[in-house]
UniProtKB/TrEMBL annotation:
GO terms for cellular component: ATP-binding cassette (ABC) transporter complex. This is ABC spermidine/putrescine transporter, ATPase subunit. The keyword Transport applies. PROSITE patterns: ABC_TRANSPORTER_1, ABC_TRANSPORTER_2. One of its GO terms (biological process) is putrescine transport. The lineage of its organism: Bacteria, Pseudomonadati, Pseudomonadota, Alphaproteobacteria, Rhodobacterales. InterPro entries: AAA+_ATPase, ABC_SmlMolc_Importer, ABC_transporter-like_ATP-bd, ABC_transporter-like_CS, Mo/tungstate-bd_C_term_dom, P-loop_NTPase, Transp-assoc_OB_typ2. It holds the Pfam family ABC_tran. Residues 2-233 form the ABC transporter domain. Gene3D superfamilies: 2.40.50.100, P-loop containing nucleotide triphosphate hydrolases. GO terms for molecular function: ATP binding; ATP hydrolysis activity; transmembrane transporter activity.
């Protein structure tokens, strides 16, 4: 549906997009994720036609978009600041998207406005004054205004970042539902990795104008293809590792854990013998509480730090042979105490949860 080939963008000498090759499928919920300044917004704007590419091609629906201005592209954009006109009613704001449609009469427009408001859960809000809406409601109005034109592609630039955490989580779920319902392609720009994981079919993780990894959320989380992707998405413990042998299985000596064998899937980058790192997610480690048993491997540790989240507790646990303590996420199940700093404990681990990165 949308294909970018060899897209480069320069702002003067600054190379903002570097050889981007990308295909986004029809009906897909696609996210561009990355730290501030990595080029997400620039990439979105080149798709929208708000930014010319310096080099390369953007195709939408099989058509080369060179020379096609933003308003003639089958895309519509929702911005971070909702750009709602405070002096207009909700219905007038939504109808603003139709202002150029001279082929529609007043009744047609009113019907379309009502349909668009229903889509975003604001049926009956048409007459309300926009300035009296909550942030979440305003964001829905902005969405309704973009959706009323039935674009083939909706481009969303950090649309939820101005909302508080509760509202944001609610809108995430609603956006997914809406996207499934209307079946159009959504391209979301976000710097919030959790938001991208929750919402997307696929995610492109960007660094410094390049795509570092493009994958579905689970692959990104479980098999990051570089240390920087692993660091950017979720929490990850890194342990020094020494690759001893690369073959059908990969033998690695991991600091603190000893010699392990992992399979090829656990090594998403090409590895060579010698220095590497082993990544392990906090929730794949565990503390063995009194009365619990395990078949898995155990190492001795001492609790160094405790961060209590209500549903979870994050422990830093020091083990022998490792400079940094291991971060371990534990669900606060019934009967599990919150341990004190200094408690001697057993850490449960499993080599299947390691990822080895060059
Ligand atoms: P953020 O999450 O902070 O919005 P981003 O990943 O969306 O970041 P972009 O807005 O795409 O980043 O910007 C990428 C780089 O290009 C940044 O270093 C930015 O300063 C630069 N840049 C963006 N627009 C322009 C412009 N019009 N002129 C010059 N440099 C620009």
């Amino acid at each position: 549906m949308i294909t970018l080939k060899g897209v480069n963008k320069y702002y003067g000498d600054y190379h903002a997009l570097r050889d981007i090759d990308l295909t986004i499928n029809t009906g897909e919920f696609f996210s561009l994720l990355g730290p501030s300044g990595c080029g997400k917004t620039t990439l979105l704007r080149t798709i929208a036609g708000l930014e010319d590419v310096s080099d390369g091609v953007v195709m939408i629906g099989g058509k080369d978009m060179r020379g096609v201005s933003a308003n003639l592209r089958p895309t519509n954009m929702v911005f971070q600041s909702y750009a709602i006109f405070p002096h207009l009613s909700v219905a007038e704001n939504v109808a603003f998207g139709l202002r150029k449609r001279t082929d529609l009469n007043k009744d047609d427009k009113a019907k379309m406005v009502e349909d668009a408001l229903a889509m975003v859960g604001l049926s009956g809000y048409g007459k309300r004054a926009s300035h009296a809406l909550s942030g979440g409601q305003r964001q829905r109005v902005a969405l309704a205004r973009a959706l009323i034109l039935k674009p083939k592609v909706l481009l969303l630039d950090e649309p939820l970042s101005a909302l508080d955490k509760k509202m944001r989580e609610q809108m995430q779920v609603e956006l997914i539902r809406l996207q499934r319902h209307v079946g159009i392609t959504f391209i979301l720009v976000t710097h919030d990795q959790e938001e991208a994981l929750v919402m997307s079919d696929r995610i492109a993780v960007m660094f410094e104008g390049e795509i570092g990894q493009l994958a579905d959320p689970e692959t990104l989380y479980r098999r990051p293809n570089s240390r920087r992707v692993a660091e950017f998405i979720g929490k990850m413990n890194f342990l020094r590792a020494d690759v001893l042998q690369v073959g059908d299985t990969i033998d690695v000596d991991v600091a603190g854990l000893g010699r392990v064998s992992v399979n090829a899937e656990q090594a998403p980058m090409a590895l060579h013998k010698g220095a590497a790192v082993a990544g392990v997610r906090p929730e794949t480690l565990a503390i063995l509480f009194a009365g619990e048993t395990t078949e898995r491997k155990l190492i001795d540790g001492v609790v160094d730090e405790v961060v209590y989240y209500g549903d979870m507790t994050y422990y830093d646990v020091r083990i022998a042979g490792v400079d940094q303590p291991l971060n371990i996420a534990m669900k606060n199940l019934i009967g599990r105490p919150v341990l004190d700093v200094g408690t001697r404990t057993k850490v449960v681990w499993d080599e299947r949860s390691l990822v080895i990165l060059a």
